[in-house]
Amino acid sequence: REILLEVKNLKKYYPVHAGFFRRKIADVKAVDDISFTLRRGETFGLVGESGCGKSTAGRTITRLTDATDGVVNFNGENLANVNSKKLWEIRKDLQMVFQDPYASLNPKMMVGHLVDEPLRNYTRKSHKKLQAEVMNLLTKVGLREEDYYRYPHEFSGGQRQRIGIARALALQPKLIIADEPVSALDVSIQSQVLNLLKELQDEFHLTYLFIAHDLSVVKHMSDRIGVMYLGNMMEIGGSDSLYEEPLHPYTQSLISAIPQPDPRRKRERIVLQGDVPNPQNPPSGCVFHTRCPFAMDACKVIVPELKEVRPDHRVACLLYDEEVMKDKK
Ligand code: SF4
Ligand code: MG
């Protein structure tokens, strides 16, 4: 399938200043050289603990914040360096759905106007036409036409996320970046919204970049998954391959923490020692070495590269590096 989004060596560093002269003393490497591709019509899941850089990656890709370095090819343009006019045009095809729909929806705006705002910005249509389109969108996301006249506070969290989704859909975008779209919702509501996203994907041929901390949610949604830790990409693979046979010790620990009702498929729990290190001062070598149960001396000095170990399944870990492992024996 055709590649819609190609992220290459994306970096987002935040300078840290200190002292009387506010001199720069360090960089927080929120996103440190990540690469991945998204094919048209697929869902790529980006997973990791909070603070791993996955949201920053999403915001940098959409240019809500500028990249420090790297390339973001979307639909034939490098988003990382297009001018603001071009960016405005491209945004039509690239929409975001956020974690907290209440914070991202203006409470003073009627639902109808929240949803038709992007249409008013990008198209010239009569009020009547817009209204008909919005009412159609509202029913597509499981709301009612009458909801057009109501305000965000009159809705539940799940319904508000449906409003946010309708708004993101209004311009028929090619790519939707959904950042923790269900993590603020009750568990009972989460699967409804996830299923809605899936139905809409089929109907509108959408491509999703799906960002979440919950690996079982990401697995449910994604064709392929990338696992991030401390700004780095640790593993990328097909959803089944990554979930059934995780290669990276960090991914293995995430999966072992998921409750597994089927006893035959139960895995030994891998509990990580310590906390995520301060991103201002990340560990040398493999950034995971301070917590990895399999860490070797080499892990403190060698930065593992993301390498293909199985078809369409890559991992950044020295356990799969023949040179390093030969020396160990
Ligand atoms: Fe663990 Fe070393 Fe692999 Fe990093 S490179 S995940 S520390 S074994
Ligand atoms: Mg986040």
Q: What features would you highlight for this structure?
A:
single chain, 329 residues, alpha/beta, Rossmann fold, eight-stranded mixed beta sheet, four-stranded antiparallel beta sheet, binds iron/sulfur cluster, binds magnesium ion, transport, ATP-binding, ATP hydrolysis activity, P-loop_NTPase, nucleotide-binding
Tell me what the structure shows.
The protein is an alpha/beta fold. It has one domain (3-93, 173-328): Rossmann fold (3-Layer(aba) Sandwich), CATH 3.40.50.300. Helices cover 32% and strands 25% of the residues. It is built from eleven helices and twelve strands. Helix 4 (111-122) crosses helix 5 and helix 5 (127-140) packs across helix 6 (157-169). Iron/sulfur cluster binds next to loops. Belongs to the ABC transporter superfamily. GO terms for molecular function: ATP binding; ATP hydrolysis activity. It comes from Planococcus lenghuensis. InterPro entries: AAA+_ATPase, ABC_transp_ATP-bind, ABC_transporter-like_ATP-bd, ABC_transporter-like_CS, Oligopep_ABC_C, P-loop_NTPase.
Question: In summary, what is this structure?
Answer:
The protein is α/β, with parallel strands linked by helices and 329 residues long.
